[in-house]
TrEMBL record:
<dbReference type="GO" id="GO:0016020">
    <property type="term" value="C:membrane"/>
</dbReference>
<keyword id="KW-0739">Sodium transport</keyword>
<keyword id="KW-1133">Transmembrane helix</keyword>
<keyword id="KW-0406">Ion transport</keyword>
<protein>
    <submittedName>
        <fullName>Acid-sensing ion channel 1-like</fullName>
    </submittedName>
</protein>
<keyword id="KW-0813">Transport</keyword>
<keyword id="KW-0915">Sodium</keyword>
<feature type="transmembrane region" description="Helical">
    <location>
        <begin position="43"/>
        <end position="63"/>
    </location>
</feature>
<keyword id="KW-0894">Sodium channel</keyword>
<dbReference type="GO" id="GO:0005272">
    <property type="term" value="F:sodium channel activity"/>
</dbReference>
<dbReference type="InterPro" id="IPR001873">
    <property type="entry name" value="ENaC"/>
</dbReference>
<dbReference type="Pfam" id="PF00858">
    <property type="entry name" value="ASC"/>
</dbReference>
<keyword id="KW-0407">Ion channel</keyword>
<keyword id="KW-0472">Membrane</keyword>
<keyword id="KW-0812">Transmembrane</keyword>
<comment type="similarity">
    <text>Belongs to the amiloride-sensitive sodium channel (TC 1.A.6) family.</text>
</comment>
Length: 174
């Protein structure tokens, strides 16, 4: 008798999955399970699948963009003066175009991140580990996009950037 009661109370995997789908906070999944008509259920299922595919596509594109290593971002304060409200800051613009990154790889130049790592290691070995932190700070200022472009052979840096139509041309605030 007690065994029969335990079998009735133990939920099956299908029941647990159904309960999870009904109570989850993943957008659209409860609507798939709770839809009364197959047509509406199919529409919600299509929406959820398409949106998840879009999510993963965006994540893959973002990861590929990150691993291009084309931005040097040393964390430092460039300006310490207060800005009037509202102020707009455009940041993290990719300084090197996609064609420029391909050109860097074709010419077998170091990418910006490898350049920054090499300069930092050189400066650390020369100054930081010898307790000359002021000199280390001065040379580490070369770790910038300007420093990278200056390290390239003459006239190559001009072909790596963006064209006018690829940049922010006009910005209006009303």
């Amino acid at each position: 008798m007690a065994e029969d009661q335990n079998k009735e109370e133990t939920p099956t995997y299908k029941q647990e999955l159904l309960r999870f789908c009904q109570t989850t906070t993943i957008r659209g999944v409860p609507r798939i399970v709770n839809a009364k008509h197959k047509g509406i259920r199919s529409v919600w299922l299509a929406f959820v699948i398409i949106l998840f595919m879009g999510l993963f596509t965006c994540m893959i594109l973002l990861a590929r963009q990150y691993f291009d290593y084309d931005v040097i971002h040393p964390p430092r304060v460039l300006r310490d003066t207060p800005s009037p409200f509202p102020s707009i800051t455009l940041c993290n613009l990719r300084p090197i175009s996609t064609a420029g990154i391909k050109r860097i790889k074709e010419l077998r130049f170091r990418d910006p991140r490898a350049f920054a790592r090499n300069v930092n290691n050189f400066a650390a070995g020369l100054y930081y580990y010898r307790n000359r932190s002021h000199d280390y700070e001065i040379i580490s200022n070369a770790i910038s996009m300007g420093g990278y472009l200056e390290s390239l052979p003459k006239d190559y840096s001009y072909s790596l950037g963006h064209m006018k139509n690829e940049s922010v041309i006009q910005c209006m605030v009303s």
